[in-house]
Amino acid sequence: MEEVYDLHQHAYCIFIQLESSGKINWQIDSNIANKGGLNDERNSTTDYLMYDERNMEIVYWKCPPEYYAPELRERLENNRHCKNRAYITIKHFIDKLYCAFKKGKNNWNKNDLILELAVKNFIRALANYIIDSYSFPTIHSLIELHYVCIVPYEWEDEIREELLRPIFIQSGLITKTDHKDRLLFLSEPESFFYYTQRNNRPRSELYNGYYQVGDHYLLCRVDVDHKRKSSIHVHLIEAQPTVLNIPEELLYPRILFSSKLSFTVDSIKSNLNFFLRAKLFPEDNNSYKNDYVDMIVKYLYKSIITGMYLFEESDYTDLTILKKPCIKVKKEWKLNETQSKYLETLSLFDICLETDRKMINTIKKGLYTSNNQAKQCKVLIFQEEWGVLNKTLHSLWSIAILEYIADSLNYINKSIIRFDGTYFSRINKALLGAQHYSQEVICNSDINSRPRILPSIEPTLSSSVFLDHKINAVLNIDILPGYTLLSCAFVNSNGIVEKVLDNHYFTNNKILPPLKLFYPVSEIATLVMNERCIPLINKHLSYNLNCMFDPDYYFQKTKKLAIKFGDILNEGFSSKEIFISTQEPKNIEAFLLLYFGYINEIILSGLSTQQLNSDSTRTRIGYLVSIEKRLLNSIVGTKEHLKELVFESGLVKNNDEYKKLRIITQGEGLLPAIQKQINLELPIKSCFVIAQLHENHVQLTLNQVVTDVGLEDEAQEAIILQDKIVPIENIYESLCISMWDKISRNTSLIQFCDLHCRDNEHLFELTAKNKFTESLREFISAKIFTGNLNLQMDNVRRMELSHTCHCAVNLSVRSILDISIRPFMYEMASLISSSIINRDYFGKYNEIEHIFSMIHFNRNQRFHPILVNLLKEELNDFNNDEKHSWVLLEVPNQLLQPVVHQRLVVYKSFQVGDLKQISNSNYGFLIDIYRLRYGGIEPLYRDQRYYTGSTFENSTLFIFLEKGDIINDASVNRVIYLTLPPICRETEVDITIYTYKIESLDGSTPDRTLLKKENADEKIDVHTLLVNFEEMPMEKNEIPLILSVEIKPYSSSLSFSAKIVGQELILVDGYPAKDVGTPMTLTRF
Q: Would you give the distance in Å from CA 664 to the centre of its chain?
């Protein structure tokens, strides 16, 4: 695994920008949220210092007077007229620092050494000032900081490590032993380019695909100061991938060409004067002509300012104002007709070209290759709004020149993006770009650093771990759509299996039907039950209602119902009986409770002969319920809900000292079993995919390795990052249709009867197709994919095509394998292999090295190796040196089955628990409804968990996710209901959602659902939802609002969002909040 620096050692980052103009800008942020007051004038100063050489400290630097240290101000005043003072004034130290670097340290004089000491002390003083002026209570020392320094683009890269890093070290902000990532360096154009990527890509589909590796970008920026000077900076950039291992990473800007053009009022007037003199009076040297030219220049001065006022109010993409003639000839200029006509045709663009042709040609030259081919580039324009508001000649002239450059490049590429809105007008975009890059480095650190494993939380309350007591047995309950299997393994104190009771032992003379008989495969949970079960379900519902305060009585009653339910199942069902279909959740759950109760009776009956109920020999049994993922999603929803149902059924009681329950999905916790088979050690933080082929779908499970091989070859552990259920055509339908298509195209496979020997046009009608596919499906299901050990590959099966003739197809298992099954396996191999590059599946993860495939749809032990080898062959076509595919003979429940004299795979899970990813922080949402806030009305809210109504004030946070909560592969969703008074029922209303990170929940309500805003630590982001009442039927004026958080392991971040139930997400402002910098934190449950 890549060695990275853990930037979470430092909670805050200071950004410092050194401008070649002598300006210094700064900002301080937490690793996630903006804390620096970007619009505050205190965030900048100039490179002017007063240094006390005797005491080696900064006496004065240009921060606002109210922030001068009183003792330093007093000392400065007392020594103002002291002749022997040791104060040294250093002006323009940024430029002097660069000159000192160019000289080389070996050639430094005393002044250069003093300069280095002064800058060192200034950097430390600046850091202390930033901390003090922004009042960070959690920063106790400089060790809690890391840094990003932005340097002028003119500076060579070597100055960063040879001069600036030693200065930071000498200042005490960092140490020699610190990792280089604690102090990052960027140039100005690099920072601006990072800003353009992050501040545009999420906002609109317009920017999707705009930033591509290898593309060229012309970054143009106007830099206007408050004096009489402005500059245009132009950089030709080639986008390249960074060395950071992050999906959707920022592209690195490689600077190919840079140019700068500066203007002052005097230089502009001089250029105008020279241009007009050359055009109007080329051969006339009379001095009085200069007076006429001066009058025209003064007129142009006013004209430019007036024209740019209009330009400011116009659409920036409409350049007609700059292209229109801008001069009206006056009589006092005493021009002839030719001269007048010439002036009257001139536009501001014409004047720009003529007066600064050299600069513009230099820029254009940089856009051509050695073969004189124009580079295809995209133009990024920065225009700081405050520069326009100056209304000075040099600033407006800069804008005109910049727009001319952009317009003249349209023949190369018309893709131009501008960055100039009023909201960002005073925000330093270079600092924002540096912040984006810093977050990228933090993500890289989080993604590639080792997981943090914390001690278990409240271990004495565990319902799934024995902890200090040794387990004696593990009972497996494997629930798949096609079957439910029971087994029990008895282990010694080291977890070695001593005896196994298999499914036949428990179900001898009993019937345990699979759930697919009662729950058809469907996106909506549906129960199909025999009418004899209805009275039992109704009784169970009444017990649940009447006995909720007497659990023992409830369990006694439900036990009797479970026994009766078992009797019905053992009697079997007749095709003549009536079956009832229902989608009522209460009936679906009641049936499941009876089903688990019946399983409990089977288990108790089987274990009673093992003499386990003696008080002197109480056996500690771990119950492992393994359920197929799609079945879980369809009829139960979550593992937590299933756990509650198991407790309620009496199969296991919550907090039972001698029984513990663990629930996993098929495909979870398989790494130890796989490694035992393959003898494969995986790098920590590497990923692998488990692909399970079912009859109607493929389950793709992305796992990540989170531990190394332990002592005594202790198995590695992995967590699930994502689960994807990919629906496919039913395998029997697919195989039958494939075979029918084959024989329809190749009639040589058909034995025609005498009637159709010559004319078989009507043979391939729908009735023949249906008869053939029905026969073939029955043959594949009953003879190929079941446990027929006597199956012969080349025995021919005759399948007739019609009831009215003797036309038939003779097929063997081998021909079905070649014609239908092999193409199907190729499609599955393609789907599985593409999952690691498909961005809708796992294409955003870079460390996937292995794919382990399993076949569920076949239960023929003899035929299974043939299918395994066939899938392996097809997968080999997609393999490469970096990706490895394996096809396992066993399916998950078989891999976890106990084997006598071997250590039980799940033994460790019941003793200490499994690792789960948890939240590092507390998070909350604040909901603000504009119309209510200004009307003095507070909405009510109702949390779905508690069904209670409370006042949801605008200054109150709803606690959504607590520190230590499990974050699994799915989104954590919660629905709250906002109740609005009738007066607010307008067509549309804005709901603003603020996402907050919360350090402590002290002061929250007893149920830990609400917290006052002032107790929150930091605001992460904000977005506004547009609610359309006309499209949303509401009861009691309630708005159902879904709050969601989704972990993004590939970018080490949490994504927060909110939407109205039943409506598309409509964002008025902002976009789903993203908490960057979420290192993987694990604990055992």
A: 25
**Residue in the block written with tokens 């793709």:** 700
pTM of the full structure: 0.78
Report the mean per-residue pLDDT for the chain. Answer: 76
Two tokens at 276?
């007009």
Residues in the chain: 1085
Q: Are 531 and 580 in contact (CB under 8 A)?
A: yes
- Determine the pLDDT at residue 626: 93
The answer to whether 20 and 95 are in contact (CB under 8 A) is yes
Backbone angles phi, psi at 898, to 5 degrees: -70, 145
The C-alpha angle 347, 353, 354, rounded to 5 degrees, equals 95
CB 312, CB 388: distance < 8 Å: yes
Reduced to 3 states (helix: H, G, I; strand: E, B; else coil), residue 537 is: helix
At 886-907, the pLDDT tens digits run 999 888 888 888 999 999 999 9
Q: How many CA atoms lie within 13 A of 874 on its CB side?
A: 22
Rounded distance between C-alpha atoms, residue 376 and residue 368, angstroms: 9
Q: Do 534 and 580 meet the contact criterion of CB atoms below 8 Å apart?
A: yes
DSSP 177: T
Residue 152 has pLDDT above 80, yes or no: yes
d(CA 895, CA 677): 9
CA angle at 28 for the pair 22 and 31, rounded to the nearest 5°: 135
Please give, one letter per residue, the 3-state secondary structure of 552-614.
HHHHHHHHHHHHHHHHHHHHCCCCCCCEEEECCHHHHHHHHHHHHHHHHHHHHHHHHHHCCCC
pLDDT for position 62: 63
| Distance (Å, whole) CA 266 – CA 272 | 10
Query: Helix or strand or coil: residue 722?
Result: strand
In this structure, what token pair is assigned to residue 262? 């500066």
Neighbours of 1 (CB within 10 A): 13
Give residue-wise pLDDT tens across range 661-695: 999 998 888 999 998 888 888 888 889 999 999 99
Distances (CA, A) of 282 to 274, 276, 295: 10, 9, 17
Which positions ≥6 away from 77 have C-beta within 8 Å? none
**Amino acid residing at 249:** E
- Read off φ and ψ for residue 45, nearest 5 degrees: -155, -175
- Starting at the edge strand found earlier in the chain, the sheet holding 750-751 runs 750-751, 808-812, 796-800
Rg over alpha carbons for the chain, rounded to the nearest Å, is: 38
Handedness of CA 315, 319, 320, 325 (dihedral sign): positive
Q: Amino acid identity of 973?
A: N
pLDDT at 386 over 70: no
Distance CA 557, CA 540 (A): 8
Q: Are 379 and 410 in contact (CB under 8 A)?
A: no
The answer to whether 431 and 191 have CB atoms below 8 angstroms apart is yes
For 883, what's the count of Cα atoms within 13 Å in the CB-facing half-sphere?
A: 21
Residue 577 burial (CB count, 10 A): 10
Tell me if 927 sits within 8 A of 978, measured CB to CB. yes
Query: How far is the C-alpha of 193 from the C-alpha of 27, rounded, in Å?
Result: 18
Question: Residue 861: which pLDDT band, with cuts at 50, 70 and 90?
Answer: confident
CA dist., res. 1026 & res. 993, Å (int): 11
CA 603 to each of CA 376, 518, 614: distance values in angstroms, whole numbers, following the listed order? 73, 22, 17
